[in-house]
Design brief:
The protein is mainly alpha-helical. Helix content is 48%, strand content 0%. It contains 4 helices and no strands. The longest helix has 17 residues.
Amino acid sequence: MEVFDISKPSTLFFGTQRDGLSKEILQRADGFLKIPMVGFTESLNISVSVAIIIQNLTNRLRHSSIDWRLSEEEMLVKRLAWAKNSIKEIKRIEARYFEENPV
């Protein structure tokens, strides 16, 4: 994990123990991360695996000179997208808002 290049934008995919990742993802991947195992452990629960890798990568980023944080504008865009995907009937709410508050 320590040789993974944190200076480049990356996308991480996690597969389950039973099914793994799709052939398409495996064929298109630029690289793979492996969590070192100690003792008799052969596999980890996927949530544990994700937590270990994300913790490792964010720890390394925090201790680097890489400007990895989102800008205020980027954070607002992400929060709005999250809200739109989380709120039931968002289209109806937006339509009603814009009817009452024309731009």
